[in-house]
Amino acid sequence: MGAAARTLTWAGTGLAALGASTALYNLATLRTLPRRVSGVIEPVTVCVPARDEADRLPALIADLRAQTGVPRLRVLILDDASTDGTYEAAIAAIAGDDRFSVLRSAAHPAPGWTGKAAACARLAARTDAAALVFVDADVRLAPHAVAAAVTELRKRGAGLVSAWPVQETGSPTERLVQPLLAWSWASTLPLGPANHSLRPSTAVACGQFLAVDAAAYRAGGGHAGVAASATEDLDLARALRRAGHRTALVTAGPAATTRMYTGAAELAEGYTRWLWSAYGGRVDAGAAVGVVAALAYWVPPLALLLGRGPVRRAGLLGYLAAVAGRLVARRLESRRRPTGADLTSALAHPVGVLKYLSLWARSHRRHRSGDLRWKQRPLVTPSAARVADRLG
Description:
Elements: H1 3-29, E1 44-50, H2 57-65, E2 73-80, H3 86-94, E3 100-105, H4 115-124, E4 131-135, E5 139-141, H5 145-156, E6 160-164, E7 166-167, H6 172-177, H7 180-186, H8 191-195, E8 209-213, H9 214-219, H10 232-242, E9 247-251, E10 256-258, H11 264-274, H12 283-297, H13 299-306, H14 309-334, H15 340-347, H16 349-368, E11 373-374, E12 377-378, H17 382-391
């Protein structure tokens, strides 16, 4: 191979090594929710938006009933026009626990709102607690999880703390794609400086498990300020930073786990729903990211397979750096040693990147055609699309 091939291979290897180094830095420095906390005296309200979650919501309710260290806990659940008996399942699981209230709505979101943003806003409006915790219905919580998240929020003096749950997987497609969520920030953003910054561009948040200061939430506009966002969690964190409140990402570790999607079809629909909004919703920015990803994660393994001599050795180094970066990111997310399944998916990292980019392109196509739907209803109405464009 010629000089151009050598240059490309070494460039890709350098990028892969940089990603692995960033992940190692984050593994060494990023905080995890503490397992032991003294308890939270202040009132805390947990808000759970739920649409068609009859199968998963009872397990979360059981976890919330078992929370410790939060003597003034209140839980608000919104059955968001479900079609599967979510309300009945919630009432049965609560079993008369007076800390819980279940709201029921038959209405779809107003124009300009996504379903989740509307549900979260409605729940937040029903409480005057100083600390809010937003939890998705598919999350499982250890008994100390809520107290630990609020303790971390107060210890940092932050407006929002995102406790990243361990992303559990089942099918081969899930194992290939789902770890890319944590890898995407773990390998690209040093979280130490980012967690102390007010720059919206360095905010990272996952709406599956958020602890929020209520005053900061209101100052940032709450969910009304991100009404049409397909990634309302990330945009909420950015809004709080613009309002002068720091936000931070920590790993939940054993405190919270979730299986976000079940099976290849649900995963594809789930990512298609929101992935178009990545990189500011800009096709050119996404394409640039795709080029960098191809250079870092496709060129080295191709050089390993097709090259000779120094080019092949450089390709091997780049491929091993990519595999190492993915394993480190998984260790950072789960706070446990990677499993054999983690190793297998890391070895297939180039294929995972290809799947991610194909889902990104699919999401953009569906967004342009106005055909984005989630849980049997349109994700964004035409008027909401105009709001989303302004957010982008």
